[in-house]
Amino acid sequence: MKKETFTDKMMKRFYGIVGPLDEYKRREIDRIGNICFILLFSILLFGNLIALLLSDQYPKAVAFAYPSILTLCIFVLLSFIIYRIHKMHLVDFDEEELTKKELKQLHFAGLKAGLNFGILMWLFNGILNLIDHVPLLQSFFSVKSGVLFIFHTGFMGVLMHFYLKLHKKSTNKEKD
Fold first, then answer.
1. 8 A C-beta contact, residue 109 and residue 168
2. How much is the pTM?
3. Label partner for 29 (CA 20 to 30 A): which of 78, 85, 136, 170?
4. Which spans are transmembrane here (predicted)?
């Protein structure tokens, strides 16, 4: 059996694919990725040109609007990726094709996603507190930060766990 390369693992992780990465899935992922790259490259090219032209007259407006618009465009592209992947059934999986290791990892995937989300939100909230001139260690290790971490982790973990269970049931129903 051929060992998975690092790029294959990254593609599967980014696009949420479980199981083997066959030629069909690889081709569709490459096509979706190419479309998004072309769109993002065009947006960045024209956005930088517009920002360069307007930066002398309206520096504050450009400093606020440019990152906001880029972030919005990235979220739109991510929504497009998610829509296309679900429409093409690239995230659907067959339990017979999975190894024991993949099945074991899939069992707690929602809880792992919740833990990752909780850690990111904990870091994000701690860094945001720097704006209010709160010391870094105090913002990371306060009671409020701990409670928010537990809430974010628990809520997102449970939500993702049930979402993945429902997704698994719906794919099993479609195959039957």
1. no
2. 0.67
3. 170
4. 35-55, 61-85, 106-125, 145-164
